[in-house]
Amino acid sequence: MKRRVLSFLAGAAAALALTALTATALAASGQVQFNFAGVALNGETKIAAGSDITAPNGQRVPGSILYVDEAGGKTNYLPIRTISELLGVKVGYDSATRTVLLGEQTEPASAAVASGLYWHRETDEDGVTYASEDPGIDYTEAPGYALTKLPEGWELESVRAGMGGRGNLSYWNGGGRISFSCAYPDGGSYGWSPGSGEIPCRTVTVNGHDAALYTYSSEYGDSCLLVWEDEAGVLFWFTGSDVDPDTLVEAASSVEPTSKTAPACEADWLPGGYSWFETNASGGAAETTWVGQGGNITLTCSATPLLMPEGDGETVRFGGVTARFWEAEKPHEAETDAWEPETVGGVIISSGTISGPQAADVATLAWTDGGLNFRLHGTVDQENLLHVAESLRIK
Question: pTM for this one?
Answer without folding.
Answer: 0.66
